[in-house]
């Protein structure tokens, strides 16, 4: 319209063009009014539908905005719940650890009484395991418990002196119990020979077939020549039966003592003690054997003198 009016030569042409455009606008308005009158119902329905759609879109936007806000709120609450749950989980672990420590403390308090029972019944391996475990606990997880300081000192002192008892028991079985078996067999042979009435002279002592400690150890499983692995395995597999007499099998008992000393880490002290007491113990064996042989010979002489006397 502007281009048409600006290109006109004079005012009359512009007025003419303006009039023509006004007529076209009026005709367009009339046509539009007629169309509106004709399609009033459809137009009203379309406007209402468009208005409804617009309202629904607006409501949907508001709802989505509310959902987003709710999701953000839930996310914050879940973070808070996660922190709370983590805190409760950590507290549960702490309480469980405290309960375990209390149970361990309760068991350790009973160690001295159980230790005395095991020592009295000579179940030294169980006593050693119990003592070592208790001392490790008292000097480890329970080190900060001030109420156990007296018990810690007591058990530590017992652990320091435990190997002395085991070494004494080892020497007793190594030197005394083994030679006692020889003496018992000699006495049994002496009684049998005194009961036999034979004119042939009976030798006082037959030493060729005596089961000496050396022969006894050579036939045992602990000193099989060329089989050190079996010896180590046997020592490792030794277990203590609390129902049986621990001293019934001397070899197993000495293995238990050595295993207990190894748990106490006192093997070097044990070897040194055996070396230091070796000469003394061997002299005691000779002394006991001499006394025993003299007693047996004196008793044999008395029996023979009584048999040779007339009634």
UniProtKB/TrEMBL annotation:
Domain Exocyst complex component Sec8 middle helical bundle, first and last residues per copy: 246-296
Domain of life of the native organism: Eukaryota
Domain Exocyst complex component Sec8 N-terminal intervals: 20-117
GO BP annotations listed: chemical synaptic transmission; Golgi to plasma membrane transport; protein targeting to membrane; protein transport; vesicle docking involved in exocytosis; vesicle tethering involved in exocytosis
A single Gene Ontology CC term: synapse
Keyword field: Coiled coil, Exocytosis, Protein transport, Transport
InterPro entries registered for this protein in UniProt: Sec8/EXOC4, Sec8_exocyst_N, Sec8_M
Coiled coil: 18-70
Function: Component of the exocyst complex involved in the docking of exocytic vesicles with fusion sites on the plasma membrane.
Similarity annotation: Belongs to the SEC8 family.
Protein name: Exocyst complex component Sec8
Source organism: Tricholaema leucomelas
Gene: Exoc4
């Amino acid at each position: 319209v502007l281009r048409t009016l600006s290109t006109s030569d004079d005012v009359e042409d512009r007025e003419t063009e303006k009039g023509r455009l006004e007529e076209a606008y009026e005709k367009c308005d009339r046509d539009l009014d007629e169309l509106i009158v004709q399609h009033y119902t459809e137009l009203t329905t379309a406007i209402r539908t468009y208005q409804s759609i617009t309202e629904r879109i607006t409501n949907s936007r508001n709802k989505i905005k509310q959902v987003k806000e709710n999701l953000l709120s839930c996310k914050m609450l879940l973070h808070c719940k996660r922190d709370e749950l983590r805190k409760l989980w950590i507290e549960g672990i702490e309480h469980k650890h405290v309960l375990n420590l209390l149970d361990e403390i309760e068991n350790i308090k009973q160690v001295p009484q159980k230790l005395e029972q095991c020592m009295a019944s000579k179940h030294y391996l169980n006593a050693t395991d119990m003592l070592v475990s208790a001392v490790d606990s008292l000097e480890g997880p329970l080190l900060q418990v001030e109420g156990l300081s007296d018990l810690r000192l007591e058990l530590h002192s017992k652990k320091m002196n435990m190997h002395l008892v085991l070494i004494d028991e080892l020497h007793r079985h190594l030197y005394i119990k083994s030679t006692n078996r020889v003496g018992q067999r000699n006495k049994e042979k002496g009684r049998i020979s005194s009961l036999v009435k034979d004119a042939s002279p009976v030798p006082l002592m037959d030493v060729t077939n005596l089961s000496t400690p050396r022969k006894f150890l050579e036939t045992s499983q602990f000193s099989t020549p060329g089989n050190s692995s079996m010896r180590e395995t046997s020592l490792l597999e030794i277990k203590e039966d609390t129902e049986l007499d621990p001293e019934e099998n001397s070899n197993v008992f000495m293995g238990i003592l050595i295993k207990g000393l190894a748990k106490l880490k006192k093997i070097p002290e044990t070897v040194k003690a055996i070396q230091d007491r070796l000469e003394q113990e061997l002299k005691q064996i000779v002394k006991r054997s001499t006394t025993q042989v003299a007693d047996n010979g004196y008793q044999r002489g008395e029996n023979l003198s009584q048999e040779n006397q007339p009634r």
